[in-house]
Amino acid sequence: MTSKLKTDVLETVSGSGTIALTNQLSGMTSASVPLLTNAHVPAGSIINAYTQVLSSNSIQSTSSSFVNSGLSITLTPVSASSKFYITYTHAPHLYTSNNTTYVTHFVHRNSTVTTIGGGERQDGSSGWRTATQTTQGIDAPNTASAITYTVKFLTGSAGNNANFHVGGHLNASHAAGVSCQFTILEIKG
Fold this sequence. Notes:
Structural class: mainly beta
CATH architecture: Sandwich
CATH class: Mainly Beta
Shape: elongated
Distance between the termini: 45 Å
Low-confidence stretches: none
Largest sheet: 7 strands, antiparallel
């Protein structure tokens, strides 16, 4: 059963005036309705999304110092209280001739190394090894200024080859690479 309330006049509590309800929605336009902005959503909500995909790339390095992987996103936080969920998928490909080596990769915020990273270690006989990895974490930069997030990698032993690659086989007897995908989600603080 549907309820109805019918009245001719609504008065204020003091009885000093009436409240007009006639045609309250007439004349309203879409401009009269407030727009939903970042200020309206609660803390913990995703307020921006950034992504980069490399479908063909192979950066090879024998350096024990960090080099760019090709994954890089520049963004400007909505506020200094924003946090960033960062994830990337890739397939490091290693070659060693001394039976032991590793590759290490980390997200850098401008020139600062974050705690978001990982690696792969190869033990045993010399040769090529490939592994698919997904790395993720949260960064809280505490700034409203522009930031460049870059994934960088290094080899554990100078002279050994490490590839941060995507695409086909680098060596026909090992697993193929995968596309490198870099995603950053801004979370309202």
